[in-house]
Amino acid sequence: MEIVDLVPEVLKNNVMITTIDGLFKWARSNSLWPLTSGLSCCAIEMMCAAAARFDLARFGYEVFRPSPRQADLFIVAGTLTWKMAPPLKRLYEQMPEPKYVIAMGSCANAGGPFADAYSVVPGIDKIIPVDVFIPGCPPRPEALIYGMLQLKEKIRHPEIVQRTAK
Amino acid sequence: MKRKYLAKDKLYALKKDFPSEMDFDDTLEKPTLIILKQQVFVEIMHTLKIRYKFDMLSNITAVDYDDHFEVVYDLANRTNNEELMVKIALAKTDPNIPTLTKLWPEADFQEREQYDLMGINFLGHPNLQRILLPDDFIGHPLQKSYKQVEKGGISEK
Ligand code: SF4
What we know:
The complex is a heterodimer of chains A (166) and B (157).
Chain A: H1 20-30, H2 41-50, E1 73-77, H3 85-94, E2 100-104, H4 105-110, E3 132-134, H5 141-156, H6 158-165
Parallel strand pairs in A: 1-2, 2-3
Chain B: E1 4-5, H1 8-17, E2 22-23, E3 33-35, H2 41-50, E4 56-64, E5 68-77, E6 82-91, E7 96-98, H3 107-118, E8 121-123
Parallel strand pairs in B: 1-6, 3-6, 7-8
Antiparallel strand pairs in B: 2-3, 4-5, 5-6
């Protein structure tokens, strides 16, 4: 007998059955709390995405937290220098699990225009694991929102990522 | 009020005191004061501060030429709104120069920056450490001879 069959007939149209995992994925993917953190020019676009014109709140992602302990999404928006790398890594480590990282812009992806510079980390994946890369210099706010929606898909269906990775 | 460059007669007056230790090109409109002898460097700077009332050291920078380093100081006098540029050459093999932190405390961070990026050694500086680059960085990246050791000048961690 399926668990669905236990639901009384009168409730069938009002009750949804799922797993705890599924419920958590659904909740997490619909309310990411990003850390208020920006490194350089890309951060301006990130602020734009949260402000009235692009209104990240439409997706439930607007609760930017000032403390890493309350955040579960790290949007690395901008150029990471070697000097800043240790504090950035510490911020990441201070975030509670589960946590996700978006590398926003060419600098965070691969060092951008400063890829060969002596002072710039050529991609934040040298320092912390990354879930979604958003290209652009800077990416437009729509691109950030699209990236966050991709992250939402990834949280809901982790298996799609595993499949493409093979 | 707009700042003006130190008048030439004042430079001539200064040259009377240091005839062989300093020089300037008087054909220029705004001649740079060039210090020729390192031994009197602090003395000349002291004179500029006390007698010429240059109460602010607004900028320190350095240049890497083929055969020598040059350290450049920009001074400002905020009472008469005057400014002056001072230059001194250092040997490539011996890029040492006395610190000016005792005359102008604001020299502190700027001298650290020149030490960090250009490798100029400011003798007597209270805390001569890297300021912009990580402490374990190898080399001084604004020197023309600089070669990146590895990505970021940092060994793999
Ligand atoms: S990717 Fe472009 S816009 Fe973004 S931080 Fe780098 S230089 Fe700035």
